[in-house]
User: Fold this.
Amino acid sequence: MKADFLVLAVLALFFIGWFINSRSDSNIGYIDLAGSLLTCEKDKKWSHYLGYFSLNSEQYYTLQKYSSCDAFKAEMAGKSLMAKYLKSNGFILELKDDEQILYNSGFSGSSFGLILVWFLTFTVVRIPVRWLIKKRA
Assistant:
């Protein structure tokens, strides 16, 4: 029981630290995507498309889903797009056209995803930890 609590606490500290670091000011950038090249990629598992913005040999993306590549291009073409993104991987946190928000990754959705990954990791890690403790005892 103590080992489970220790594993849970260590994983919680690790994931919370990673989340805060990935969203820190040093890892967040702002870019004007108005002149970017718009491309799409069809999801291999599902029948929707993900849109990509290419600018200065860098690629930026959101997790917003589109029914077709043309739908993505029609929605984004000709707009003055400003993006707030993660420098580490080009993931767009917020996309604006002037002052209208077109996409927001959402802090709550990211937090719930983090908690889900935390518990899944806990269930996988606790098995070998408990096995090692029983073997040593």
Summary: The CA atoms of residues 35 and 55 lie 7 Å apart. Residues 1-26+106-137 form one domain. The helical segments are 2-22, 69-76, 107-136.
